[in-house]
Description:
The chain is of the alpha+beta class. It contains two helices and three strands; from the N terminus they run βββαα. The chain has helices at residues 35-39, 41-61; strands at residues 8-11, 16-19, 28-32. The protein has a three-stranded antiparallel sheet. The longest helix has 21 residues, at 41-61. It is elongated.
Amino acid sequence: MSDGDEKYWFNLSTREVELGMQSAAVDRVGPFDTAEEAASAPEKLRERSRAWADDDAADDSWGTTSLSDAGEDEEV
């Protein structure tokens, strides 16, 4: 039995927690140590997705401060 067969996975298609690698890799996320952790996978994915989107937005706007964004007291 491989290590993944002893862990919990969240099946994205059925929205159920599975013990071991029962379903196709494309349908599951994990591994998790507990069934409770696996059950919270959708929320964890949403949190990480928001964080990545925020990071990407910050990266996209890096260095784009226009002159009008500079303080009035600054010399240009």
